[in-house]
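Following up on my earlier thread - several people asked me to post the actual chain instead of describing it. Fair enough. Here it is, all 197 residues.
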Amino acid sequence: MTELHRQIFAALSIVISIGSFAPYIRGIYNGSVRPHLVGWLIWSLLTALVFIAQLVSGGGAGAWTTATISLLCCMTLGTSITHGDKSWTAYDKACLTLTLLALPLWILSQTPLYSVILLTFIEFLGFAAMTPKTWKNPKGESLSYFSYGVLKYALGALALRHWTWETALYPTATAVMAGAFALLILARRLKLAPLRG
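Reply from S.P.:
Thanks for posting it. Predicted structure:
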């Protein structure tokens, strides 16, 4: 694959990332969405650290997708301060603590690999935390947002200059998790839809 192809994939991923966030931000300002402050703090830190890991590991254009997602998370975090849910649970505190441990782990191990593994695991915990609520109320989550998540992370992974565990683990695993979550939403909506005669 040429560098031009990687840049095209990265550009498409960035456009999809911005497009998928736009309705969410709009929902915050019109009052239909109330972002969770701690959740967006975790995602902001997590994606920033993954971006840095991808950058120093030679991710190239693919790293810019993660940088864009990190900036969008930071914007959402900013709006969460004035328009968000500021409650904390023990689960939130545990996830935030694990996220904050990623940087010292990187420094102590002198490789970003263990931090990326930890951050990918935290992403999994985020999806796991949303699963019971989504199982009960599949209309409470956006099917399109998670479907676009598959695309943006898959394209971001394709845009990577060097495929290593440090660069590719997070976007590839997150694309799979977003796809599984989108399928869960769709399956539960179909299961709970009223039968039509």
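Residues 130 and 144 are 16 Å apart (CA to CA). That should answer part of your original question.
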